[in-house]
Amino acid sequence: MNKFTALLTANNVLRGRTFALWSLRSALEQDFDQIKNALDGYIPAAVQWIVYAGTLLYECEKEYPVRADGGSTGSGGPLWNGKTGFCQERWTFWKNRFEQVQSISELADSTKSAAKKAVTEMDKIEKEHKKVLA
What we know:
mainly alpha
């Protein structure tokens, strides 16, 4: 489902960036020890957004407004206290968290491999953008 939604979003068929944010927040913005049993599901789902819509997410600088009740569509999980939306700082935070996932011994090898794939893809996207700016 995440791969399909990411592809639709990347191809401008669907405005699905919010789904990306929620998937990445669930997987990466919480204490891994508290959600360890769910990581084998959360991480591969979040990776789909990086692989299939990563460039769109990297380029996105969107902050979601804070509602009167203090909440926001783009608010972070417990470990993210930055902007309520997409920004380079959050991208870097996610990348660092994908790197950390690779060292959690209890996770399936496929989950660790998926996290490594996300980091590789994020590096590639960053390098491509640096070439364009140069």
